[in-house]
Design goal:
- The chain has about 325 residues and is α/β, with parallel strands linked by helices.
- About 30% of the residues lie in helices and about 15% in strands.
- The chain is built from twelve helices and eleven strands.
- The strands form three sheets. Strands 4-5-6-7-8 form a five-stranded parallel beta sheet. It has a three-stranded parallel beta sheet with strand order 1-2-3.
- Strand 5, helix 4 and strand 6 form a beta-alpha-beta unit.
- Helix 3 packs across helix 4.
- It starts with 7 loop residues before the first strand and ends with a strand.
Length: about 325
């Protein structure tokens, strides 16, 4: 991670054991960068609601506990994402197959309301558009029952979010984290097998989010895809597939906005933009030195190397 310029890493779903391990390894300097850990709701269970959960138990100087993580569906390429309309190529010959929710709708409503009422920021995994609909419905109900001025619920992946759902995200104070690098790694198969051409052209709809004035992040879901932040930036700009096709040019964003999605807007999403994500007085001295300027040649930017990665003013990686 240090070699590719990561100064803050996110552990997108921890158990109590993993949380304590991350904090311990951080204290010993084995993990040199900052970590934001999302506790899994199903791993921590009643601890989150009965007063037995103390974030300090899983924190250190550079490890912080963030939003509570729920997983509402699976993956598109695994035929386990929950879609409003059937998959492009039927699953095992079933032309009506749309996937399924990982958490039943009524259970999702109950979990979201209780956690929201308890004051937690939420990070909910949703790939298929029907899963995203359930998530937004559950969160809207929780907000109506227990209003929070700036909830900043993170909708993780948001891969098949429709434009009407992006508009709802804006009205509900939801911020998506797009898995835009999927256009490179899985784009051809999403178009030809799972989503079909029309839905694949608007997967990870960064432009819609931008048009609606939503700040969003871009992630890699490592180890699903390699930890290569410049690939995430490159994919947000070019939306090119491994096969060489452009998958939905209308959803492309410019280089600076794509860089923001892995820096300051990612920090905003987790309520950390006042201390990281930009170089300004008062922020942590976390920075990356590249071998070139990604603005100069956008097509070649993912080939740039990291010369140095600095966290808290200390170099944790230097290119030999």
């Amino acid at each position: 991670y240090a070699r590719v310029g990561v100064t803050t890493a996110q552990s997108g779903g921890i158990s109590p054991e993993l949380g304590k391990g991350l904090a311990l390894f951080s204290r010993f300097g084995i993990i040199p960068m900052r970590i934001l850990a999302f506790p899994f709701e199903h791993q921590f269970g009643d601890m989150l609601l009965n007063g037995n959960f103390d974030p300090a138990d899983y924190s250190s100087e550079r490890v912080e506990v963030g939003a509570v993580k729920l997983v509402a569906d699976g993956s598109i390429q695994g035929y386990t994402g929950y879609l409003s309309h059937p998959y492009h190529q039927p699953f095992k010959g079933d032309a009506s197959y749309r996937g399924y929710p990982a958490i039943p709708r009524d259970v999702l409503f109950d979990k979201v309301e209780k956690l929201h009422q308890a004051g937690y920021q939420l990070a909910i995994h949703g790939n298929g558009d029907e899963s995203i609909e359930d998530i937004l419905d559950a969160f809207e109900a929780a907000q109506l029952a227990h209003p929070v001025q700036d909830p900043r619920m993170i909708l993780i992946h948001s891969q098949m979010a429709r434009e009407d759902q992006v508009a709802r995200m804006k009205s509900l104070g939801v911020t998506p984290s797009f898995f835009t690098a999927h256009t490179w790694y899985w784009g051809d198969r999403h178009r030809d097998i799972f989503m079909g051409p029309q839905r694949a052209a608007v997967m990870s709809p960064s432009r819609w989010a931008q048009d609606y004035g939503i700040r969003f992040s871009s992630h890699l879901d490592t180890p699903i895809t390699p930890m290569l932040p410049l690939q995430a930036v490159w994919s947000s700009v070019h939306r090119m597939t491994v096969g060489g096709d452009t998958l939905g040019e209308d959803q492309s964003i410019d280089v600076m906005d794509a860089l923001r999605a892995v820096t300051i807007d990612a920090a905003y999403q987790i309520f950390q933009y006042d201390n990281r994500g930009s170089l300004e007085p008062g922020n942590h001295a976390d920075l990356v030195v590249l071998t070139g300027n990604p603005l100069n040649d956008p097509m070649a930017m993912r080939d740039l190397k990291v010369e140095r990665t600095v966290v808290g003013g200390v170099t944790i990686y230097r290119r030999q």
